[in-house]
Specification:
Blueprint (H helix, E strand, L loop, with lengths): L7 H16 L20 E2 L5 E2 L2 E2 L5 E15 L2 E8 L7 E5 L3 E8 L8 E3 L20 E2 L2 E3 L5 E6 L6 H7 L3 E6 L1 H4 L11 E9 L11 E2 L3 E2 L3 E4 L2 E2 L1 E7 L1 E8 L6 E5 L5 E6 L2 E9 L2 E3 L4 E7 L7 E5 L7 H6 L6 E13 L21 E8 L2 E2 L11 E4 L3 E8 L5 E5 L5 E5 L14 E4 L4 E7 L10 E4 L3 H5 L3 E7 L19
Parallel strand pairs: 1-18, 2-6, 4-7, 6-12, 13-19, 18-26, 27-30, 29-36
Antiparallel strand pairs: 3-4, 4-5, 7-9, 7-10, 8-11, 11-12, 13-16, 14-15, 16-17, 19-24, 20-23, 20-25, 21-22, 21-24, 25-26, 27-28, 30-34, 31-33, 31-35, 32-34, 35-36
The structure holds copper (II) ion.
Length: 503
Amino acid sequence: MPASSRPAVAAVLSAALAAAALTGCSGEQQPTVVDTSGRIEFSRPLVIPPLDRGTVAEDGVREFDLIADEGSREFRPGVSTPTWGFDGDYLGPTLAANVGERVRIRVDNRLAVPTTVHWHGMHLPARMDGGPHQLIEPGGQWSPTWVIDQEPTTLWYHPHPHGETEEQVEMGLAGLFLLESPGTAALGLPDRYGIDDVPVIVQDKRFTDDGGFTLQTRGFVGSLGDELLVNGTLAPYLDVTTEAVRLRLLNGSSARTYDFGFDDGRSFDLIGTDGGLLESPYRTDHVQLSPGERAEIVVRVSPGERPVLRSNPPDLGMQDVLAAVNGGADRFDVLQLRAANTLEPSPPLPPVLADIPRLDPMYAVEERTFEMNGLQINGRSMEMDHVNEMVELGALEVWVVENRMAFPHSFHVHDVQFQVLDVDGRPPPPELAGWKDTINARPDARYRLIMRFEDYADPETPYMYHCHLLAHEDAGMMGQFTVVEDAEAATSELQLPDHDGSH
Ligand SMILES: [Cu+2]
């Protein structure tokens, strides 16, 4: 991917925005629509990223090694694509650790450029978070360590260098991070990795004629591809040998929102969202995910059948023509499930999955508003040396996220899992009723989120909040917050080391 195209992104997006504002809702141009439904010959077995449980050192710390490096992969036989990956050519291993354990992860950067590794959704000290301030220089190493202290769930990891995140994720740097606990194991959910508990990392791509990845801005959301990779596999199928299979869906795309369902309209159970299991399974026939969001679903199959996981046109909350420009009319076949002729029985799902204590806004000590307008939040762009919000340690806060535009954004908060109190004053739908770290911020919508900042005061190291449409994030649609012992005494000016933020 040409690095030289990077600085143009903000300009292109701004131009798209201006053009859209000028044409209003009339939308004269004929939007490109991508539809691969019914056209995919599922010819390749789904690649399952290796499960990496690390090794437990003498001091009880679970240790992992991740090496970020360049590589190449033949997504199509005979056509080599330059890629980046962790411990391999494309994507990275699925890391797994237990709640309550201390982990340490040694990251080696063998790329030619600085990078970071952010543990998306993880509650951890800011210095370990892998945001833009924790740059790893080429040839350098970084060994963050923390105690896993949150609900078992499906997290992920990816680079977060300011201004470079989209390119690095698009090149292939991303992986899942599973948090496990004995309590969850006792629920009897499908949990055999790669057999009935399967990662499904969905990324849209556009290939050049000679096989490289390319980014092509379409609409306002950023770059949209016309083909899908699932765990780095084009046109994949999955052999299913059990009556029920759990799919851990990650929207690992930069800009595209998916609305996952099945080609035959069958129902499935949504059992978990970003930060943990739902209170009980939610029966539905579709689940919409914007970039960075996860969903765990359990789908049942009959012997011999071949249902296809499909992404139908998502509801972007925009008028049709404008939505279409932003991928709102696109339809993709994602993954074919090939049920064996004899299936191993799977137990029914338990009626109760988790206890989610409800955070009560009555006890909130602070309410902050985050107004998303243009490519800014509260009228500001990301500045590496400016802390936008200082949060007192232990505070329960309500964050009001308002998208003031006729275009979609999203909102991701580091360090915490939050609860959605309401959307435009109405209670959240089931898919937003559990723990979340990223939400789709629909056009002209208002979300009230509630979260507690329990640990890890550090006045010198900020966490990020930002739009997870990666082109928007790179263009500065991001802000910083610190968790501090004493908000009165805290300063919004950060002293940056010489090399920090200079890239
Ligand atoms: Cu955005």
